[in-house]
Design a protein that fits this description.
Blueprint lengths: L2 E11 L3 E10 L3 E8 L5 E12 L2 E8 L1
Antiparallel strand pairs: 1-2, 2-3, 3-4, 4-5
């Protein structure tokens, strides 16, 4: 599986504290992501899959998370 992109982001808010997110997409259409909050120790994982030509519609996709 070949990675097509990787992104990393940081955010800060006085109430929520420091947060980080990492997302990657693969040439197969699979996308994976993780959001983490350092103050609350909460995290969210997500995944997506780009189905492309379902019913002739190139925008169709699936998201979980």
């Amino acid at each position: 599986m070949k990675m097509s992109n990787l992104s990393l982001g940081l955010s800060y808010n006085a109430d929520a504290g420091l947060g980080m997110n990492v997302n990657t997409n693969f040439t197969s259409g699979l996308g994976l992501g993780l959001d983490y909050n350092f103050k609350s120790k909460d995290y969210t994982a997500n995944a997506s899959y780009d189905l492309n030509n379902i019913g002739g519609k190139k925008w169709a996709n699936v998201n979980l998370g």
